[in-house]
Design brief:
mainly beta, six-stranded mixed beta sheet, five-stranded antiparallel beta sheet, 40 strands, 7% helix, 39% strand
Length: 575
């Protein structure tokens, strides 16, 4: 039986816990994982995700791990692999868009500075010798700064080193002390026997202030073992493949510049009593490093090396100055290191007191989330949610399919994105309170706005879940993007598409694979559901499929490679 607690008592209880644990007071979700600390927590009350949702299709393609950020005024910013920075109003309607330089992709979340300016990283692959061989490719990256009306304030090329890089695949964070701010971005460069991770500090105007080595994928001199190719592919995915060894391998992943899993970013922590903020960053391999920043220089104060584990998650500084980070254990076979799928949570410095590690049955690729009462929520590769309390396993809940997306926590709820749905749990009792079915989720983290809106992405569609369904919730879209309110919000209970046609005027392909191999009802069901949700409906009520000699196109713009293709003759969408 679900425990019922009055909303007033719950909010008072949660707020007292927030004060006791020094959780951030800001309500805005200005960085990839909520705040500088990567807590994934928003100090607002929310409603369960489901009723009155609005879908926003046609924005573009989102790289795995890249989610929106939200400013104090409720403006939502998100970037696409087409190199477009998009600003939306809180309800999902268009504010403005800006294009980066040609061929640049946005593969991480943006970051918002104190003055409201938005920092976004554009990165592109460069063919050094006219081939696609990994050894003949490098990367170029640029840091852009826009103001909140979309004006470009600055753009700065990342410094180059050696033969590879800069591959700026980690999300940016903004260090702040007093009135001083600096943008921290991790990057990767190739070296003769592996990869080097560096942390670059930029001024708000784009000047490079400092550049430090975090770690390197050199062979382990103690064990005499080095990483195999798949490990390097997971560390910095430069190949156009998705390795099963990397964890969650989704069934529908376009040819992104960045693949699975996303590269962890930077965590920044200021102790409750003030003082110099700590900057925590891992190399996504075996090393976690802590820095302080003064006189525009980075100073190393902490270095943790885990010789028997790979570091998988972004570092999350805790209120007691420990740093939580997720690991995956290593198996060694003939001197080759391989990830074996078993997970572990450790609590590193700068706090020097020892806290024992927490063993997990599976690996966690997604960043940890800190709840209002101090408990920790972790989403594993299967989409299950593991709760830690006082550094120990406390509880677990079933999600909605595979996931590499961090949970988002409010005062009242926990939101979890899975491949097959979006689940809301009660933050106090941990009971499931709603489940919104979709396809293609689990790749991008959900976020929470300062007014209680919840934003989530599935199949490259942004879903906006309002704090409360009212007549004013639905806002007419402005020019440029179409917002599709759900059937419940518009009182449209059902619609038949006979046949459904893509934006390019082609028949909708009914299979996942372009060669139609192993195509069956499972494919038809998933694609029809994705089509209906793109139109703003909750489910696909019915569909008919036939093989025809037509041009057949998928929802993400690919074409059937056969003479006769399976296409939908009809899809019936319903609430």
């Amino acid at each position: 039986m679900q425990l019922r607690v009055s909303s007033i008592i719950r909010v008072i209880w949660c707020c007292m816990a927030v004060l006791a644990l020094h959780l951030p007071s800001a309500k805005a979700w200005e960085f990839a994982h909520g705040d500088r600390d990567n807590t994934g927590f928003a100090n607002v009350a929310t409603s369960p995700a489901g009723k009155g949702s609005v879908s926003v299709p046609g924005l573009g393609t989102f790289a795995p791990g890249a989610g929106p950020v939200v400013a104090n005024d409720g403006t939502v910013y998100l970037g696409t692999t087409e190199g477009k920075l998009i600003a939306l109003h809180a309800d999902g309607s268009l504010f403005w868009t800006r294009d980066l330089s040609p061929r640049q992709q946005i593969v991480t979340s943006p970051a918002i500075a104190e003055d409201g300016s938005i920092f976004v990283v554009g990165v592109r692959k460069v063919r050094k010798y006219g081939t696609d061989a990994p050894e003949d490719m490098t990367f170029a990256a640029t840091l852009y700064r826009f103001n909140n009306t979309g004006a470009l304030l600055s753009q700065t090329a990342f410094p180059k080193r050696d033969n590879f890089g800069p591959a700026a695949f980690g999300f940016p964070n903004v260090w702040r002390s007093g009135n001083a701010e600096a943008v921290m971005v991790p990057v990767y460069h190739r070296h003769p026997i592996g990869l080097t991770t560096r942390l670059i500090a930029f001024s708000l105007t784009g000047s490079v202030l400092d550049d430090k080595v975090v770690g390197s994928t050199a062979p382990d001199t103690i064990q005499g073992a080095g990483p195999d190719t798949a490990v390097l592919t997971c560390l910095i995915p430069i190949y156009n493949v998705v390795a099963d060894k990397c964890g969650y391998n989704p069934t529908r992943v376009p040819n992104f510049l960045v693949h699975i899993p996303p590269v962890p970013g930077v965590g920044i922590f200021t102790q409750a009593g003030g003082g110099t903020p700590f900057i925590l960053v891992s190399d996504h391999y075996k090393t976690l490093v802590g820095y302080t920043f003064s006189n525009q220089r980075l100073t190393e104060v902490l270095r943790v090396h885990e010789k028997d584990f790979f570091m998988r998650t972004p570092p999350m500084p805790m209120p007691d100055s420990h740093t939580l980070i997720g690991l995956e254990s290593i198996s060694r076979d003939d001197g080759i290191e391989k990830a074996n799928g078993r997970g572990r949570i450790i609590f590193a410095g700068p706090n020097a007191s020892k806290i024992g590690p927490v063993a997990l049955d599976t690996t966690v690729q997604a960043g940890a989330t800190r709840m209002a009462d101090g408990r920790i929520a972790l989403v594993d590769g299967y989409g299950n949610v593991v709760i830690l309390k006082d550094g120990k396993l406390f509880s677990s809940m079933e999600g909605a399919g595979r996931s590499m997306a961090s949970a988002a926590a409010s005062l009242s709820h926990i939101f979890v994105s899975g491949e097959n749905g979006f689940v809301t749990f009660d933050a106090n009792t941990l009971a499931e309170v709603s489940r919104f079915n979709w396809v293609g989720g689990g790749l991008n983290p959900p976020v929470i706005g300062p007014k209680g809106h919840v934003y989530a992405i599935a199949s490259n569609i942004l879903f906006v879940f309002p704090p409360k369904l009212t007549a004013s919730t639905i806002r007419q879209p402005q020019s440029g993007l179409a917002i599709a309110p759900t059937a419940e919000a518009t009182n449209l209970q059902e619609k038949e598409y006979k046949p459904p046609m893509t934006a390019g005027g082609n028949r909708l392909f009914a299979c996942e694979e372009l060669d139609q191999d192993d195509c069956g009802k499972g494919d038809h069901k998933d694609i029809s559901l994705a089509w209906c949700q793109k139109q703003g409906y909750l489910k696909a009520k019915d569909f008919d499929v036939d093989s025809k000699k037509v041009t057949a196109e998928t929802l993400d713009g690919r074409f059937c490679s056969k003479n006769k293709c399976k296409v939908f003759d009809q899809i019936v969408c319903a609430n």
